[in-house]
Specification:
Layout (H helix, E strand, L loop, with lengths): L25 H11 L1 H20 L7 H26 L7 H18 L4 H26 L3 H20 L9 H8 L13 H27 L7 H23 L6 H19 L1 H11 L1 H6 L4 H27 L10 H11 L11 H20 L4 H27 L1
């Protein structure tokens, strides 16, 4: 959208039927931009407000470097699950089995590494393959047999939980090899001259800032090339400034402790990789198409069965990865692991902008939703809120997020 505020009212409307903004006060232009993008950035603003609230409430303890590192480590497996769950929900489905699958793959990994002395890299590959097979089996019944995903994954939840009990024989099994523990709990090594900060983390932060700025400018240019309406210039500058500031502050906090956790690099790779696939790759567009309007997608030639199959195969692999990270973090596999993980992942996806009807959501939104839950959990623990009230508050946050989605759709329709 143009931000020209000249009084020439004869300018034609921009492509796509949007009204021209010439003659419109700049404040009104910015307000219209905020309204159009409220659903996309509302939770980002909410995350900032929640962080600010608990930073004040805890007397500054929330953003202590040690606590920020713990926040990443404590929520890594939920964030991994949230990425896969967001893609599943975008495609118009749901997966209730991921919590049980994380427990199963963690248990099988423990059996391989602890009881049979399989080297941990080989065991990781085998467990990831197992997760892919489990996801593919569910995807087959959903895509090719036609059983609703709710029923298939509910059956998978019960099946995987029972198999976990069988493999572990009701016992907790550990410890895990040191190498795998370092992946889940370790930090990047320090190199370079001795400073007050972790040099590698600072370098990675600068690279990430450059990537964020490049990606935002590139996306804005592509929107104009395809005759789409970009954010007003002032709002775009504010968005980029806020993103850069957030990355910079997080980098400095991590670098002033032990540096970036290894699992944070895994999350960053998943975020960049799946974000690119969902934005630019053909299969990503097909996922949005079948979730947004399945009959139209079929008429357009989208192979919906193959796409659905691939979505659940991918979810199985991410569940396996989350299960390994969780088991290695606590250095033991337990039959009771993964309880309610599927609910946390689903909540993170909806809080991060997913729609009940499918076809809407982003990978970054899943991360933001997961961080909202993580900050809530961490902040409430720091101020001594009981677990009973924590559940109440998280339930209200989820209800508010979905209610906001419904309200936003009605407003857009009106």
């Amino acid at each position: 959208m143009s931000t020209d505020i000249s009084t020439d009212k004869s300018a034609p409307a921009p492509p796509g039927g949007a009204p021209a903004t010439r003659g419109t006060p700049l404040a009104q232009v910015l307000l219209n931009g905020v309204r159009r993008n409220m659903r996309q950035y509302g939770m980002l603003f909410a995350l900032g407000l929640i962080v600010l609230l608990f930073q004040v409430w805890t007397g500054g303890d929330l953003l202590l470097p040690r606590n920020v590192s713990n926040l990443v480590l404590q929520n890594s497996y939920i964030l991994i699950l949230a990425i896969g769950m967001m893609i599943v929900i975008i495609s118009g489905h749901i997966d209730l089995s991921v919590g049980s699958l994380t427990a199963l793959v963690g248990g099988i990994g423990a059996v391989l590494m602890v009881q049979h002395q399989v080297s941990w890299p080989v065991a990781v590959l085998l467990v990831l393959l197992l997760g892919a097979v489990a996801g593919a089996l569910q995807g087959f019944f959903i895509a090719y047999v036609g059983i609703p995903s709710f029923i298939v994954t509910l059956a998978g939840m019960l099946l995987f939980r029972g198999l976990t009990e069988i493999f572990l024989k009701g016992q907790t099994l550990g410890p895990f090899p040191d190498g795998l523990q370092k992946v889940a709990n370790g930090f990047l090594p320090e190199v370079g001259p001795r400073t007050n900060y972790h040099n590698v983390t600072l370098l990675l932060g600068l690279v990430l800032i450059a990537y964020v700025v490049f990606q935002e400018v590139r996306d804005r240019r592509r929107q104009r090339e395809f005759a789409l309406e970009p954010l007003p210039t002032g709002l775009f500058a504010l968005k980029v400034t806020a993103l850069v500031a957030a990355v910079l502050v997080t980098t400095l906090l991590l670098a002033s402790y032990k540096g970036a956790p290894v699992v944070l690099l895994i999350l960053a790779a998943l975020l960049v990789g799946f974000g690119y696939v969902m934005r630019n790759a053909v299969i990503g567009r097909h996922v949005y198409a079948i979730g947004g309007n399945l009959p139209a997608a079929k008429l357009s030639g989208v192979k919906d069965k193959k796409v659905t199959f691939a979505v659940f195969l991918n979810m199985g692999m991410l569940a396996a990865l989350a299960g390994l990270v969780f088991a290695a973090r606590f250095n033991a596999a337990s039959p009771k692991a993964g309880v309610n993980f599927e609910l946390e992942a689903i909540a993170a996806a909806f809080i991060g902008g997913a729609s009940m009807s499918g076809g809407v959501g982003t990978v970054l939104g899943a991360i933001i939703g997961g961080l909202v839950l993580g900050v809530l959990n961490n902040g409430m623990n720091l101020v001594g809120v009981g677990t009973d009230w924590q559940q109440v508050i998280k339930g209200l946050v989820l209800l508010a997020a979905v209610g906001f989605d419904v309200w936003n759709k009605r407003r857009a329709g009106a």
